[in-house]
Amino acid sequence: MEFEELVRAVQSLTDDDAFRARLDAQQWRTLGGYLTQHEVPRGTALIREGEVDRSLYFLGQGSLQLFRRDAPPGLPRVVMLRPGAVVGEAGLFSGAPQAAGVEAMTGARVWALRLPRFEELCSRTPALALEVIRGAGGVLAARARLQTTRHPAAA
């Protein structure tokens, strides 16, 4: 039942940077087999700014805060994430250090898609993997637009 709650949360999120992959119920079940569930206690870092983390996280329950120590002027230093949000999408595709940290504001349940499992998904179910890429790419694009509209000098 917990995974179904995650799917409902992801599908109901209407934020500009929501994960909008077009997955049917069977595809969600298949994707769920590639995810690992983690309980993140309040105050615990999920992602550390400056470290490499090759995972995409789906927030199922609780709340997370995304923060940047040296956010450019005009950009928020802290962003709150609620159930259904994804985080770490850039890390899944890049070996670069994380540009922001993510910490649990409350106890949280996340589902992680780690790079080795994502590569396996790409190999075994390419159409599903492509849709995950499309959804994560939409999140990346929306977050990049937010940065350039709030801080045009960064463009």
What does the secondary structure layout of this molecule look like, with pairings?
Elements lengths: L1 H11 L12 H8 L3 E5 L4 E3 L7 E7 L2 E4 L10 E4 L4 E2 L1 H5 L7 E4 L3 E7 H10 L1 H25 L5
Antiparallel strand pairs: 1-8, 2-7, 3-6, 3-8, 4-5, 4-7
Helix pairs in contact: 4-5
Descriptive account of the structure:
With 155 residues, the chain is α+β, with helices and mostly antiparallel strands. It contains five helices and eight strands. It has a single domain, classed as Jelly Rolls, CATH 2.60.120.10. The radius of gyration is 15 Å and the shape is globular. A four-stranded antiparallel beta sheet has the order 1-8-3-6. A four-stranded antiparallel beta sheet has the order 2-7-4-5, with no helix packed on it. Helix 4 packs across helix 5.
Content of β-strand: 15-25%
Terminal Cα span: 43 Å
Provide the structure class.
Answer: alpha+beta
- Strand adjacency order, main sheet: 1-8-3-6
Structurally, the number of domains stands at 1
Give me a quick take on this structure.
The chain has 5 helices and 8 strands; from the N terminus they run H-H-E-E-E-E-E-E-H-E-E-H-H. By secondary structure, the chain is an alpha+beta fold. The chain has one domain (2-154): Jelly Rolls (Sandwich), CATH 2.60.120.10.
